[in-house]
Amino acid sequence: MRVVYRHFPLRTIHDKAMITAEASEAAGAQGKFWEMHDWLYEHQAEWVASSNITETLISAARTLGLDAERFRRDLEEGRYRAKVEAAYAEAVALGLPGTPFLLVNGRPWPQTLNYLEYAHLEAMVKLARLAERHFPAPPPMTIDPTRRYRAILKTEKGEVVIELFADRAPVTVNNFVFLARQGWYNDITFHYVISDVVAITGDPSGTGFGGPGYTIPDEITETLTFDAPGMVGMLNAGPNTGGSQFFITMAPLPQLNGRYAIFGRVVEGLEVVRALRPRDPEADPGAPPGDRLLEVVIEER
């Protein structure tokens, strides 16, 4: 990670915005950009009230040990004005409404989100890194729906064995098997756990917002319901938006029927799921990571 400074002089509000921005660049040409940056912020009341801003800045340059005459020439000739104006034009083109403002990989981050919280900044970085692992499209069909598949979830609390419904949810099972064999589920966490209700995993970023880079259609059937504990469903953010996150129920949850595709059920190790440490990132964004899912092993019979 690196910090990149870009000027955004609000000239219609601050009459000295341009020249102070130019002053920081003139100081930067002598290797002291951040020293001038810090001086400007620490002495803002002084230079805002100055009747001769150029002389005030030159005096500051001397204080910082700069070549004052070179600094004066740079200001008087407007040597760095084009650079400051270009930065301003870039900000306007991006639609920046003001400062402070955050860009993530060149894209404005919505101001409606409290992005100044550390937990949210951390989540942004994790999601940006997860994008490097995205797949270009859903996997081709490689499973045989007439065969039996089991998934063994190896967690730090023990093993959970899931019977996969390849015959009734072939697309979802195929997707799950593909991701498991690609190592997508290796060494991740159960990022959301409500005791005796549900446990959610499948997001390597651990943020609850990560996915494989594609979506799959829902496979919802009336013959599979959440009317018993141990059902395994594909999480989604709305119809036909499943990806990699899945959940395991620890109680009957009939309110989920018709909303999420069921693609398996726990046949061994439900007590392991019940033993997972509770975690609610919405209530406590800074909570420690959840219990780890070490590996998912697929058995085919």
Automatic annotation (TrEMBL):
Q: Which UniProt keywords apply?
A: Isomerase, Rotamase
Instruction: Tell me which EC number(s) this protein carries.
Output: 5.2.1.8
InterPro entries in the record: Cyclophilin-like_dom_sf (IPR029000), Cyclophilin-type_PPIase_dom (IPR002130), Cyclophilin_A-like (IPR044666), DSBA-like_thioredoxin_dom (IPR001853), Thioredoxin-like_sf (IPR036249)
Highest taxon of the lineage: Bacteria
Q: Any signal peptide, and if so, which residues?
A: none
Q: Which PROSITE patterns match?
A: CSA_PPIASE_2 (PS50072)
Question: Which sequence ranges form a coiled-coil region, renumbered to this chain?
Answer: none
Chain ranges of the PPIase cyclophilin-type domain:
158-301
State one Pfam family annotation. DSBA
| Molecular function via GO | oxidoreductase activity; peptidyl-prolyl cis-trans isomerase activity
Its biological purpose is as follows: PPIases accelerate the folding of proteins. It catalyzes the cis-trans isomerization of proline imidic peptide bonds in oligopeptides.
PANTHER family the record matches: PEPTIDYL-PROLYL CIS-TRANS ISOMERASE-RELATED (PTHR45625), PEPTIDYLPROLYL ISOMERASE DOMAIN AND WD REPEAT-CONTAINING PROTEIN 1 (PTHR45625:SF4)
Q: Which protein is depicted?
A: peptidylprolyl isomerase
Query: What organism, scientifically named, is this protein from?
Result: Thermoflexus hugenholtzii JAD2
